[in-house]
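Lab notebook, design round three. We kept the backbone fixed and only want residue identities now. Task for the bench partner: fill in a sequence for the structure below.
Input structure tokens:
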């Protein structure tokens, strides 16, 4: 009788305490339910203290809010004016994440995935005929500092704060094959990490060369392919048309 009672007491305490000692391997923090609010002009996705705004007309990311801090990070595309039928469609996945797909002329061009961790991921689904796969304008935001970790290098190259004299011409600052890129704005910062293929980033100055105002990304292999195509290689040399398209996939993490 005593042993049975002792066993029941042990089971009782186990059931009471088990929520505080989760099973190893299960995620117990850093994930929140994603709420979606739709208006006539945008989709607003909230996860924890983060808010992501995707425009219906632009079919892309436009604003990010963390706590009370807002960042205008307007996604742009060079072929926006030529698209006759452009739309943004969303769906919720089994893991709780939300996927927003950009469709143009009945073709899936790209997609954003918003994860319950508060991170977001971009993936380009089709080959780009222009100079970049993904671009953003900073609008009225000022880029104060940037730093990056290059592939196969133990140190990062950085500048903080940005010296206007660095912008000596209208040529973009090129960052090739980086492992991590950090952009520090007045209110928010963003860490950008390539997921699969090497990526080329170009930070573009304003017309008056007073500050950086935009950034673009391209799969590094696709960037090399574009260069090969412009060089018009002779017969017998592999051309850009024979090299398979490499999807651009980037992870974005916004923080204070």
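Proposed sequence:
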């Amino acid at each position: 009788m005593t042993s049975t009672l002792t066993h029941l007491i042990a089971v009782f305490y186990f059931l009471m305490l088990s929520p505080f000692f989760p099973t190893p391997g299960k995620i117990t923090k850093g994930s929140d339910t994603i709420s979606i609010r739709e208006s006539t002009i945008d989709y607003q996705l909230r996860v924890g203290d983060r808010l992501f705004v995707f425009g219906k007309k632009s079919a892309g990311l436009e604003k990010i809010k963390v706590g009370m801090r807002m960042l205008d990070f307007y996604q742009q595309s060079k072929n926006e004016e030529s698209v006759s039928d452009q739309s943004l469609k969303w769906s919720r996945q089994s893991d709780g994440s939300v996927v927003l797909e950009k469709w143009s002329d009945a073709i899936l061009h790209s997609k954003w995935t918003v994860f319950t961790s508060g991170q977001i991921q971009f993936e380009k689904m089709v080959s780009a005929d222009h100079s970049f796969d993904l671009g953003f304008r900073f609008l009225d935001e000022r880029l104060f500092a940037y730093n990056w970790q290059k592939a196969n290098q133990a140190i990062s190259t950085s500048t903080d704060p940005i010296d206007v004299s660095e912008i000596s011409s209208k040529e973009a600052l090129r960052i090739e094959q980086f492992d991590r890129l950090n952009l520090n704005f007045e209110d928010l910062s963003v860490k950008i990490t390539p997921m699969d293929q090497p990526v080329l980033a170009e930070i573009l100055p304003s017309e008056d060369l007073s500050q950086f105002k935009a950034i673009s990304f391209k799969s590094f292999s696709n960037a090399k392919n574009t260069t090969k195509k412009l060089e018009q290689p002779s017969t017998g040399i592999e051309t850009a048309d024979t090299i398979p398209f490499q999807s651009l996939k980037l992870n974005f993490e916004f923080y204070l």
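Keep this in mind before ordering anything: Residues 29 and 152 are 32 Å apart (CA to CA).
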